Amino acid sequence: MIENNNIVEMEEKMEELENIPAHPDAVIEEKSDITELKQDEKTWMQEFISFIRDLIIIFVVVMTIRTYIAAPFQISGKSMETSYHDKEFIIVDKFSLVVWAPTRWDVVIFRPHASNGKEFYIKRIIALPGDQIKFEDWDVYIKKSGSDKFIKLEENYLSALSKWRTFLPSDVQDNTFTVPDKEYFLMWDNRNNSSDSRSCFMSCSIQPSTHFIKQSDILWKVFLDFWYFNIFQEWTLRIWDLKWVYKPRFLDTPRNSTYDWL
């Protein structure tokens, strides 16, 4: 009987404990835990939204710069040797030519409308609208618009293999050209291995043909020269083969030249 009474008393005490209301501090602490959990969830969501927002802003800024200000290009071919090299990386200025007209000696990117399917060419502007350009004895002469005499160009941006070796193709009859309004006469720096305004960019026998490039087809000009860095040799990556193929010149490039006397 005593054992049964003890069991009954213990059950009654258990019921009394279960019926005791929770302590107010415990309720507050439980609510506080829930609040902190919700705040953590809110903070994580805010960080995620901020991350997506930053990505969108960066994307818009990069695309705006690439579309309207500057963009990277890689040169393909040796037509501008030794001023610019095959596989070399450059940055082109997309903004200047929207505001100002191209100037003499600028190295520019343009659309050639050539039949070889290439969309862009890189060349140097030699003669401006209204100029006369003459080829004689492997040299280049310019008579500026409004001038009465031809001046022989020194062309200090040319290599030893190209300097004073500028020829006209055999199918070109005239050796003197007058540049029309809003058009330009362009040439490669590699004069012995190129197709430029001297040869109508492809062939002067194809009609209609022209020796000139319209201003509207000159898109951008070279702004920065980066480099070409070779990390592969014989299809194998080896640390000791890392080397500059062409060192970066940045702004110190032959992208223009100054002739105070011209």
Topology:
Elements: H1 2-19, H2 24-69, E1 70-74, E2 89-93, H3 96-99, E3 107-110, E4 121-127, E5 132-136, E6 139-143, E7 151-152, E8 176-178, E9 183-187, E10 213-214, E11 218-225, E12 228-230, E13 232-233, E14 236-237, E15 243-246
Antiparallel strand pairs: 1-2, 2-11, 3-4, 3-11, 4-9, 5-6, 5-8, 6-7, 9-10, 12-15, 13-14
Describe the structure.
The chain has two domains: 28-62; 75-246, Umud Fragment, subunit A (Ribbon). The chain is built from three helices and 15 strands. It is elongated and about 80 Å long. It is an alpha+beta fold. Strands 1-2-11-3-4-9-10 form a seven-stranded antiparallel beta sheet. A four-stranded antiparallel beta sheet has the order 7-6-5-8, with no helix packed on it. Strand 13 (232-233) and strand 14 (236-237) form a beta hairpin.
Which structural traits does this protein have?
262 residues; alpha+beta; Umud Fragment, subunit A; four-stranded antiparallel β-sheet; 3 helices; 26% helix; elongated
Shape: elongated
Number of domains: 2
Strand content: 15-25%
Q: Determine Rg (CA atoms, Å).
A: 37 Å
CATH class of the largest domain: Mainly Beta
Unreliably modeled segments = 24-28
Oligomer: single chain
**What is the makeup of the main sheet?**
7 strands, antiparallel
Give the SSE order as H and E letters.
HHEEHEEEEEEEEEEEEE
Number of strands: 15
Strand order of the largest sheet: 1-2-11-3-4-9-10
Count up the helices: 3
